[in-house]
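Could someone model magnesium ion with this protein?
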Amino acid sequence: MLHDALIIGGSYAGMAAALQLARARRQVLVVDAGQRRNRFAAHSHGFLTQDGETPDGIAARARQQLLRYPTVTWIGATAETAAIVDEGFTLRLEDGSQRHGRRLVLATGVTDTLPALPGLRERWGISVFLCPYCDGYELAQGPLGVLATSDAWFHQAMLIPEWGPTTLFTQGRYHPDDEQRARLAARGVAIEATPVLSVGGDRATLQLADGRAVALAGLFLVPRTDFANAVAHGLGCALEEGPMGRFLRTDARKATSVPGVFACGDAARAAGSVSLAVGDGAMAGAAVHQSLVFGLG
Ligand code: FAD
Ligand code: MG
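Reply:
Sure, complex below.
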């Protein structure tokens, strides 16, 4: 069967794209490996009408509503490669089977690479975070830390005091200059150069190299991100470099550099959220539909 659209990634962005296409009575295939980026978090915040709901709950309800449309097919699997063929695209899934479609939507999200500090990964989404808009409010103005992991350290350290008294841990690797020190001091940010060796405790107690322990309500850091799919590489989609990592270049209608391939959500923006993924997905879905009507301009 030749689907109108193949959507890789059935999370917030991919489902929002699929919904527009389903409502235009188009044949849509969603292929989803089920590894949403926020699966480590107990609650999702900041998305209208769903503030404080579980990430799984939001996705499950969206999927239930989407699958009411008879032209939507869902496969729980990983898509491994996509090839450009005469009538569109051929996807190869992990079991070796193939699926065919006239357009392709990459809604595959990103993967986060955290620094290799013992205790960090287990606390990701619980007391170690990236996004203060997502998780800052619940920390109730408790003592907070920023772990410098990349050139984004200054931006994050300036921002976090909105959510509680903040210490910047430079790991002895990042060196604020005089102007940065003055601006951080004006925000009340303390600077700690002694390296952090591990994270423990119920929340985030940092063990420092000189034997001290610093108990925090929450620790923020900027992970290294990469868009989560080899499929885009195989197709030759153009990339952009953001402060956290690479993402897929798209235009205002979420078209990539490869005709017929669209991308939405975290995979196609420098920094994302559930709301932005849903917005991007809705745009991509409508753009895919219109490209089926008017052709690829
Ligand atoms: P994702 O939700 O990451 O989904 C991508 C999907 O594509 C996954 O299901 C994955 O398995 C699938 N996929 C990837 N490659 C393939 C393939 N080859 N074949 C098949 N399937 C594939 N945002 C908020 O708005 N509020 C919050 O409170 C919040 N909290 C967060 C907490 C944490 C710890 C983290 C890390 C992020 C948080 N975010 C939050 C950000 C939010 O998770 C992302 O912005 C959002 O998930 C992006 O949606 P997406 O659909 O683009 O990608
Ligand atoms: Mg959250």
